[in-house]
Amino acid sequence: MELLKKTFNFYFSNFKNIVLIMLATYIPIQILSYKLIRPEFFEYLFMHSLIVILVSIPFSIWGSAALIQYTYIRLSEGRSLTFKEAYLDCLKSLPRLIGYGLVTGLITMIGIILLIIPGIFFALRLGLYSIIIIADGENRSNPFKKSYELMKGRTLEFFWLSLLLIIMNVILEFVVEFITGLFLSEALSTIVSGLTSDLFMVTYALIFIIAYVPDSADKNE
Prior knowledge:
By secondary structure, the protein is an all-alpha fold. It has helices at residues 2-13, 15-36, 45-76, 83-89, 94-114, 117-125, 129-136, 143-150, 155-181, 186-200, 202-220.
């Protein structure tokens, strides 16, 4: 619970910058999804959904990388990046993040198809890979191997923390959608509740980053 407390303390003390970083990719994704990539352009809804996902992936990875860049620098060096600096500084890491991200997604998907539990296990054990890539900079260490080692003995802890955050998010999204549904149209209510959910789930990424920084420091001492 100490890790959860540190995560929320960091989240709220840096809330403005975190929101700016997230909106920088959230808005383009929404515009692409709802304005430019129209369902009527495609014969099948599946094709529309697939195109939206493929177009959204680079933006999502870039946004996540910028958040990691900001958080890691804030925690390890004590200085705060602007959202522009966060996005530009992580550009050099994007190719590796995309590559390892696709491999992680494939491994997790195969594990879930097999028995579900292996998928969750690998998702958690490899959960630090993106943070390690950002933190290592030009160092080409194996982020999968390093993440697997650092998460040893902490997998169950992160499983329960992840489950708790998911439950909290479901409750929050339901409450926000219910309240906004009283005053806004269904479409706007869905967008607001979705944005609220995405903003809250930033804490999931922060937990891994905040857990990694002291571990990394201890390894280097």
